[in-house]
Amino acid sequence: MRGTEALHLRLLRLLRDEGAISRAELADRLQMPRPRLLAELERLVTLGYVAEAGLAASRGGRRSTLVELSPHLRFAAVDLGASSIDVEVVNGRLETVAVYAEVADIRTGPKAILHRVNDLLHKAKVDGAYERLHAVGIGVPGPVSFRDGTPVSPPIMPGWDRFPVRELLTREHGCPAVVDNDVNIMAIGERHGGVAHSVDDFLFVKIGTGIGCGIYLSGEVYRGNDGCAGDIGHIQVDAHGPVCSCGNVGCLEALFSGAALAREATAAARGGASPALAERLAASPTDSVTALDVAQGASEGDVTCIRLIRDGGRRVGGVLAGLVSFANPSMIVIGGGLAQLGHILLAEIRSVVYRRSLPLATGNLPVVLSELGPRAGVAGAAVLATDVAFAEAS
């Protein structure tokens, strides 16, 4: 990144995160000579990124002029799940302007899914949410080449391999686009506005249809050489376990995920091991039970439901214990759809991590639930969208 781009990114991030700031304070915070700051601000005003926001409060002497991000800035944030599309349009302060959500099957392929994304964004335009978009951020539930803006061999996304997602969105909306995997955008969202707001080194573990880990090191997402860092769902935990969607045997994801839990719970219901699950199975139009049924059964004290959750938590905790010994994070955040299993799951993960990791690594290690919950993904996609636009402002 060139010097001017880096400066604009720092300046615009400051206005995004803190709101209107005086020119004098900006010069101090950025450690810039006042004349250069004024020149850069003038350029950003011309480009439509910055606007004046009145006068600062008087501290004696001449009052300084406040500047803020232009109220016309708009960014699209998209979070694709295995069975859902969530879209938000936000302003430069990441405040929500419009929200759209619908059920969708990621397996229908990129053309169908991205067509729906584009339809929702065009609907937002018709509804008056924006005149033009300045960037689009999108997360997908599979490995992504961040450099190329494409999914790469995603196990649960047939037809998406190397599909030019970034290129298509850029062409469709006439603005920069950025593509990342879903757990990274959730980690970014949690870092920006959730429980990890002041933490520079943490792990965000998404437990849902799949299992993944967003890794924050020194205040930045660590993606690895090819963008697949954190794919912990495909770490083998049982050499004699079931076949995973990736083709290997006994992966963590094959033993504990939304689909795996539903499979085990349905078997328990049919086998008579769980009265609570048997009752829900009898009332189910699909002749199966879900992770939500397990959560509700556990809250009623059903022994089998509690055991299923604890078994899953023990497996996740075992993998995380190894990561804690390796990376020594300051926090672990648990999110994703199965976070709804609540404190039974959390307590089991904590217990295993604390028991199997070194005391030095766990003495000050909180293991907590996501504060943003289901909004973590769109929140992180919005942050990524603003960052890519701000970096290109020159």
Protein architecture, described:
It comes from Plantactinospora sonchi. Belongs to the ROK (NagC/XylR) family. This is ROK family protein. With 394 residues, the protein is α/β, with parallel strands linked by helices. The protein has 3 domains: 3-69, Arc Repressor Mutant, subunit A, CATH 1.10.10.10; 75-189 and 375-392, ATPase, nucleotide binding domain (Nucleotidyltransferase, domain 5, 2-Layer Sandwich), CATH 3.30.420; 197-370, 2-Layer Sandwich (Nucleotidyltransferase, domain 5), CATH 3.30.420.40. It is 43% helix and 18% strand. It is built from 14 helices and 15 strands. It has helices at residues 3-18, 23-30, 34-46, 110-126, 165-173, 182-193, 252-255, 258-270, 275-283, 291-299, 303-327, 343-356, 359-362, 376-392, and strands spanning 21-22, 50-55, 65-69, 75-80, 84-90, 96-103, 135-140, 144-145, 150-151, 177-181, 202-207, 211-217, 220-221, 331-335, 367-369. The strands form 4 sheets. It has a 5-stranded mixed sheet. A 5-stranded mixed sheet has the order 13-12-11-14-15, sandwiched between helices. Helix 8 crosses helix 9. The protein is globular and about 75 Å long. The model has no long low-confidence stretch (mean pLDDT 94).
